[in-house]
């Protein structure tokens, strides 16, 4: 038996349908052929992967849960999770691209947009012909988006959008963005901003040590004219952006397992071959403890993600349950990446292996979509009934 292949220790595949397994196999095969060969170079050069969104569209990795009539996959939540896991096994930047497009751009248009907006944007986003971005975070408001300063002011029959969003995935290359702003009654409104609108500019954030194969940047609005048709009329409070986060955070809870497994398998293969003191390093108890603990934590994370997916499919997953899984699984993946890097010794720091890249990526994943601390406070509030924010 090739022990490095065993990462489904509790035979959780039995919990997946044949369709889930088929989707996983097809995404795995495509992503490893069409994207993985280019990831390391893109990350080293701090450039996004050429044509990534279109590739993701072609292989069916965008809008998995959006109905087929709008170009989506019409799949269930577990299928979405399985897809995210395959993407993040390659690189968190790849999963990030799909998370933003599917959960943060397509989802709000589907949930809160008009029929016209759905028909106009969803098929183009699903195919990857359009790249979307999600603007919630601002320079002065990250964990506390409710205090946002971006405004939507009435101007004749339309509105004027002013403000700035920061740390926005795909901002520099986006064709359109779902942007959250406060109107004059302090209601939180969703606005569809398109590239080319007067007063809308984008700026790239440089020198990142993390998610280097993904581009991040600012969205800046200076008196951008917005019509009624550019607004998402189905929501006017924080539940709008926060509901999108539920979907993306859920995807991350699956995705990071992919990154963790990639690190674990790499380290195990290495430890079985690397000889020190005349024996493979995998034969030493200290290293075996690391592998045992990593596999235990991976297995617990798999169970959490799978169960959350089932609850989500039944419409029973609470935001607080999603927070618990996002926080736990990202922390698990970070620890697995760190341990795996140690096991490779000096070899752990070079790009010949994917571990350091995963490790650096996961630092961002632990911050975005709600920080490690914020998710703990969400659980704390749920347990005690007292907000500690
Ligand atoms: P709070 O007063 O608790 O709630 C305000 C209203 O929203 C409702 N709500 C939710 N609805 C749906 N889903 C959720 N998860 C919800 N959480 C709260 C709530 O019921 C209430 O509704 P109503 O009708 O009673 O008014 O909200 P708060 O302002 O005190 O904030 C709570 C807090 C801190 C948990 C929230 O602000 C938060 O989650 N902060 C973290 C910010 C965050 O996660 N930002 C992510 C930005 S996007 C991103 O990072 C993309 S990375 C993309 C990638 O590359 O993958
Ligand atoms: P802050 O909120 O300033 O937090 C700083 C520290 O203080 C953290 O450790 C936090 O846990 C802690 N803290 C904050 N409040 C409390 C409290 N009440 N109690 C205890 N500790 C607290 N945002 C988008 O809208 N769209 C995107 O596409 C997007 N993509 C991103 C891509 C990358 C690569 C990164 C790094 C971020 C991205 N973000 C995006 C932003 C991300 O969501 C924020 O960085 C995140 O929400 C945290 O906000 P902040 O960085 O301002 O940190």
Keywords:
11 helices; 8-stranded mixed β-sheet; two-stranded antiparallel ribbon; alpha+beta; AcylCoA_DH/ox_N; binds 3-thiaglutaryl-CoA; AcylCoA_DH/oxidase_NM_dom_sf; 389 residues; transit peptide; flavoprotein; binds flavin-adenine dinucleotide
How would you sum up this structure, described in words?
49% of the residues are buried. This protein has 389 residues and is of the alpha+beta class. Helices cover 51% and strands 15% of the residues. The strands form two sheets. Strands 1, 2, 3, 4, 5, 6, 7 and 8 form an eight-stranded mixed beta sheet that branches. It starts with 17 loop residues before the first helix and ends in a 5-residue tail after the last helix. The chain contains eleven helices and ten strands. α4 packs antiparallel against α5 and α8 packs antiparallel against α9. The site of flavin-adenine dinucleotide has 19 residues, from β1, β3, α10 and α11. This is Acyl-CoA dehydrogenase family protein. It comes from Sphingobacterium suaedae.
């Amino acid at each position: 038996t090739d022990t490095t292949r065993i990462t489904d220790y509790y035979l959780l595949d039995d919990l997946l349908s044949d369709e889930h397994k088929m989707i996983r196999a097809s995404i795995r095969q495509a992503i490893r052929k069409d994207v993985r060969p280019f990831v390391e170079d893109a990350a080293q050069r701090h450039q996004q992967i050429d044509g990534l969104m279109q590739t993701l569209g072609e292989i069916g990795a965008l809008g998995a849960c959006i109905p087929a009539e709008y170009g989506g996959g019409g799949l269930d939540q577990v299928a979405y999770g399985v897809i995210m896991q395959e993407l993040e096994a390659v690189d968190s930047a790849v999963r990030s691209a799909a998370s933003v497009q599917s959960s943060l751009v397509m989802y709000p248009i589907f949930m809160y947009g008009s029929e016209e907006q759905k028909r106009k944007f969803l098929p183009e986003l699903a195919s990857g012909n359009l790249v979307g971005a999600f603007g919630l975070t601002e320079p002065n408001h990250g964990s506390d988006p409710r205090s946002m300063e971006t405004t939507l002011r009435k101007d004749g029959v339309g509105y004027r959008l002013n403000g700035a969003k920061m740390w926005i995935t795909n901002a520099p290359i986006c064709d359109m963005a779902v942007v959250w702003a406060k109107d004059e009654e302090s209601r939180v409104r969703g606005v569809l901003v398109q590239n080319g609108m007067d007063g809308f500019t984008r700026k790239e954030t440089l020198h990142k040590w993390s998610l280097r194969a993904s581009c991040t940047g600012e969205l800046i609005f200076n008196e951008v004219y917005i019509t009624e048709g550019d607004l998402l009329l189905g929501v006017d409070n924080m539940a709008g952006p926060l509901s999108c986060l539920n979907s993306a955070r859920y995807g991350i809870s699956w995705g990071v397992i992919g990154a963790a497994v990639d690190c674990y398998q790499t380290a195990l293969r290495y430890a079985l071959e690397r000889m020190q003191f005349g024996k493979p390093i995998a034969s030493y108890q200290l290293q075996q403890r690391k592998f045992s603990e990593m596999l235990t934590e991976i297995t617990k994370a798999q169970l959490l993600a799978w169960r959350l997916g089932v609850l989500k499919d039944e419409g029973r997953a609470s935001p607080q349950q999603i927070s618990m899984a996002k926080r736990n699984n990202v922390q698990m993946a970070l620890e697995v990446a760190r341990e795996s890097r140690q096991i490779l010794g000096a070899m752990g720091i070079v790009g010949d292996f994917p571990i350091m890249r995963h490790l650096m990526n996961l630092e961002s994943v632990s911050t975005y979509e709600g920080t490690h601390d914020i998710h703990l406070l969400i659980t704390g509030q749920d347990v005690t009934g007292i907000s500690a924010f």
